Amino acid sequence: MINKTKLFQLLNNQKIDYKVYNHPPLYSVRDSINMRGIIEGAHTKNLFLKNKKNKFFLFSCLENTVINLKLLKKNLKVGNLSFAGENYLKEILLLSPGSVSPFGLLNDNENRVDFYLDQKLTSHEVINFHPLENTSTISLSLKKFIYFMSMHKKLVKFINFDNYKIKDEPSN
Predict the structure, then answer these.
(1) CA 32, CA 25: separation in Å to the nearest integer?
(2) Which residues 6+ apart lie within 8 Å of 146 measured at CB?
(3) Structural domain spans, the chain
Protein backbone atom coordinates (compact mmCIF):
# COMPACT_ATOMS: atom_id res chain seq x y z
CA MET A 1 0.00 0.00 0.00
CA ILE A 2 1.25 3.42 -0.97
CA ASN A 3 0.50 6.08 1.62
CA LYS A 4 1.71 9.67 1.91
CA THR A 5 5.05 8.70 3.48
CA LYS A 6 5.75 6.02 0.87
CA LEU A 7 4.75 8.41 -1.91
CA PHE A 8 7.36 10.90 -0.72
CA GLN A 9 9.94 8.10 -0.55
CA LEU A 10 9.16 7.08 -4.14
CA LEU A 11 9.45 10.67 -5.36
CA ASN A 12 12.72 11.13 -3.47
CA ASN A 13 14.12 7.84 -4.80
CA GLN A 14 13.39 9.01 -8.35
CA LYS A 15 14.88 12.43 -7.58
CA ILE A 16 11.66 14.27 -8.40
CA ASP A 17 11.50 17.74 -6.86
CA TYR A 18 8.29 18.68 -5.09
CA LYS A 19 7.01 20.97 -2.38
CA VAL A 20 4.58 20.01 0.35
CA TYR A 21 2.13 22.39 1.95
CA ASN A 22 0.32 21.31 5.10
CA HIS A 23 -3.11 22.75 5.84
CA PRO A 24 -6.40 21.87 7.52
CA PRO A 25 -8.38 19.09 5.78
CA LEU A 26 -9.80 20.22 2.43
CA TYR A 27 -12.93 18.38 1.29
CA SER A 28 -13.99 20.51 -1.67
CA VAL A 29 -12.77 23.06 -4.19
CA ARG A 30 -14.40 25.75 -2.07
CA ASP A 31 -12.42 24.57 0.99
CA SER A 32 -9.25 24.62 -1.10
CA ILE A 33 -9.82 28.15 -2.37
CA ASN A 34 -10.63 29.43 1.12
CA MET A 35 -7.91 27.69 3.11
CA ARG A 36 -4.95 26.73 0.93
CA GLY A 37 -3.10 29.98 1.30
CA ILE A 38 -0.62 30.90 -1.40
CA ILE A 39 0.31 27.76 -3.29
CA GLU A 40 1.61 28.41 -6.78
CA GLY A 41 0.63 26.40 -9.82
CA ALA A 42 -2.56 24.87 -11.19
CA HIS A 43 -5.02 23.65 -8.60
CA THR A 44 -6.99 20.55 -9.45
CA LYS A 45 -10.13 18.67 -8.67
CA ASN A 46 -10.46 14.95 -9.17
CA LEU A 47 -13.52 12.96 -10.12
CA PHE A 48 -13.64 9.21 -9.53
CA LEU A 49 -16.39 7.81 -11.75
CA LYS A 50 -17.75 4.44 -12.85
CA ASN A 51 -20.18 3.04 -15.35
CA LYS A 52 -22.79 0.31 -14.84
CA LYS A 53 -20.30 -2.37 -15.89
CA ASN A 54 -17.95 -1.30 -13.08
CA LYS A 55 -15.38 0.27 -15.37
CA PHE A 56 -13.65 3.02 -13.39
CA PHE A 57 -12.32 6.42 -14.45
CA LEU A 58 -10.33 9.14 -12.71
CA PHE A 59 -10.38 12.65 -14.18
CA SER A 60 -7.99 15.31 -12.90
CA CYS A 61 -8.84 18.77 -14.13
CA LEU A 62 -8.43 22.42 -13.30
CA GLU A 63 -10.45 23.19 -10.20
CA ASN A 64 -12.86 25.50 -12.04
CA THR A 65 -13.64 23.07 -14.88
CA VAL A 66 -17.30 22.25 -15.36
CA ILE A 67 -17.76 18.61 -16.31
CA ASN A 68 -20.77 17.53 -18.34
CA LEU A 69 -21.21 13.82 -17.57
CA LYS A 70 -23.56 13.34 -20.52
CA LEU A 71 -20.97 14.65 -23.00
CA LEU A 72 -18.26 12.69 -21.24
CA LYS A 73 -20.11 9.36 -21.50
CA LYS A 74 -21.05 10.08 -25.13
CA ASN A 75 -17.47 10.77 -26.21
CA LEU A 76 -15.93 7.97 -24.17
CA LYS A 77 -18.68 5.58 -25.33
CA VAL A 78 -18.88 3.96 -21.89
CA GLY A 79 -22.58 4.18 -21.05
CA ASN A 80 -23.95 6.05 -18.07
CA LEU A 81 -21.39 7.49 -15.69
CA SER A 82 -21.84 8.23 -12.03
CA PHE A 83 -19.63 8.99 -9.08
CA ALA A 84 -18.06 5.81 -7.75
CA GLY A 85 -19.06 5.05 -4.19
CA GLU A 86 -16.82 5.39 -1.18
CA ASN A 87 -16.48 1.60 -1.04
CA TYR A 88 -14.84 1.55 -4.49
CA LEU A 89 -12.62 4.48 -3.60
CA LYS A 90 -11.32 2.59 -0.56
CA GLU A 91 -11.13 -0.81 -2.30
CA ILE A 92 -9.32 0.26 -5.48
CA LEU A 93 -7.36 3.43 -4.68
CA LEU A 94 -7.16 3.00 -0.89
CA LEU A 95 -8.36 6.57 -0.44
CA SER A 96 -10.99 8.28 1.65
CA PRO A 97 -13.44 10.90 0.33
CA GLY A 98 -11.84 14.32 0.01
CA SER A 99 -8.41 12.78 -0.64
CA VAL A 100 -8.92 11.68 -4.25
CA SER A 101 -5.69 12.10 -6.17
CA PRO A 102 -4.02 10.51 -9.19
CA PHE A 103 -1.38 9.25 -6.76
CA GLY A 104 -4.05 6.82 -5.57
CA LEU A 105 -3.57 5.03 -8.89
CA LEU A 106 -0.32 3.67 -7.42
CA ASN A 107 -2.55 1.47 -5.24
CA ASP A 108 -4.55 0.19 -8.24
CA ASN A 109 -2.49 -2.95 -8.74
CA GLU A 110 -4.94 -4.39 -11.27
CA ASN A 111 -5.08 -1.17 -13.34
CA ARG A 112 -8.86 -1.05 -13.08
CA VAL A 113 -8.98 2.74 -13.40
CA ASP A 114 -8.49 4.70 -16.63
CA PHE A 115 -6.81 8.03 -15.88
CA TYR A 116 -7.43 11.26 -17.80
CA LEU A 117 -5.65 14.56 -17.22
CA ASP A 118 -7.23 17.83 -18.31
CA GLN A 119 -5.46 19.15 -21.42
CA LYS A 120 -5.58 22.65 -19.91
CA LEU A 121 -3.22 21.52 -17.15
CA THR A 122 -0.49 21.20 -19.78
CA SER A 123 -0.31 24.99 -20.01
CA HIS A 124 0.94 25.09 -16.39
CA GLU A 125 4.46 24.21 -15.35
CA VAL A 126 3.44 23.28 -11.80
CA ILE A 127 0.39 21.27 -10.74
CA ASN A 128 -1.03 20.48 -7.31
CA PHE A 129 -2.64 17.37 -5.89
CA HIS A 130 -3.28 15.88 -2.49
CA PRO A 131 -0.53 13.40 -1.63
CA LEU A 132 -3.12 10.71 -0.69
CA GLU A 133 -4.34 12.77 2.28
CA ASN A 134 -6.38 15.97 2.21
CA THR A 135 -4.31 17.64 4.94
CA SER A 136 -1.50 18.42 2.49
CA THR A 137 -0.95 19.60 -1.05
CA ILE A 138 1.99 18.53 -3.16
CA SER A 139 3.28 20.81 -5.93
CA LEU A 140 5.43 19.41 -8.69
CA SER A 141 6.32 19.90 -12.31
CA LEU A 142 3.72 18.60 -14.76
CA LYS A 143 6.46 16.91 -16.78
CA LYS A 144 7.88 15.21 -13.70
CA PHE A 145 4.38 14.10 -12.64
CA ILE A 146 3.77 12.45 -16.03
CA TYR A 147 7.23 10.88 -15.92
CA PHE A 148 6.63 9.58 -12.38
CA MET A 149 3.29 8.03 -13.33
CA SER A 150 4.79 6.36 -16.41
CA MET A 151 7.64 4.95 -14.29
CA HIS A 152 4.94 3.26 -12.22
CA LYS A 153 3.17 1.95 -15.32
CA LYS A 154 0.23 4.32 -15.02
CA LEU A 155 -1.00 5.56 -18.39
CA VAL A 156 -1.89 9.24 -18.54
CA LYS A 157 -4.42 10.11 -21.24
CA PHE A 158 -5.44 13.68 -21.95
CA ILE A 159 -8.91 15.10 -22.35
CA ASN A 160 -9.98 18.47 -23.63
CA PHE A 161 -13.05 19.45 -21.62
CA ASP A 162 -13.97 22.08 -24.22
CA ASN A 163 -14.82 19.40 -26.79
CA TYR A 164 -14.39 16.17 -24.75
CA LYS A 165 -11.80 14.79 -27.17
CA ILE A 166 -9.30 12.24 -25.88
CA LYS A 167 -5.59 12.13 -26.75
CA ASP A 168 -2.73 9.88 -25.68
CA GLU A 169 -0.33 12.83 -25.64
CA PRO A 170 -0.78 16.49 -24.74
CA SER A 171 -1.37 18.97 -27.54
CA ASN A 172 0.93 21.93 -27.83
Answers:
(1) 9
(2) 117, 156
(3) 21-167
* Model pLDDT for residues 98-130, shown as the tens digit of each residue: 899 999 999 999 999 999 999 999 999 999 999
Residue 89 burial (CB count, 10 A): 19
d(CA 168, CA 154): 12
CA atoms in the 13 A half-sphere facing the CB of 5: 1
Instruction: Classify domain 21-167 at the CATH topology level.
Output: YbaK protein (3.90.960)
pLDDT value of residue 25: 78
Closest CA to 99 of 58, 56, 130: 130
Give the model's confidence band at 170: pLDDT under 50 very low, under 70 low, under 90 confident, else very high: confident
